[in-house]
Amino acid sequence: CLNLALLTLHALFAFLPSVYWVFALVFWEGLLGGLVYVSTFAEIADAIADEEEREWSLGATSVSDSGGVCVAGFIGMAMEVALCDWQVRHGRDWCRKL
Length: 98
Hints:
mainly alpha, single chain, elongated
């Protein structure tokens, strides 16, 4: 949530001094996401002894993860348009030129 807030504020007010700061934040976000993903599946594999229940749990987690990514993608599409419109209204039309 902190990454989302920071990068949204940067899209609105452009306060980071270089694009490399954004790259670093996105890299950090990827590391956190991967850590959560691997830790969740490792915990399921270790904590659930019954093989059938473990299989179901791993499948349900996979579907939930994919569903979350899909929902985030739709939210991101709407948010990108809103942020671009805000930037254009405030004199930064870079998103329209690319």
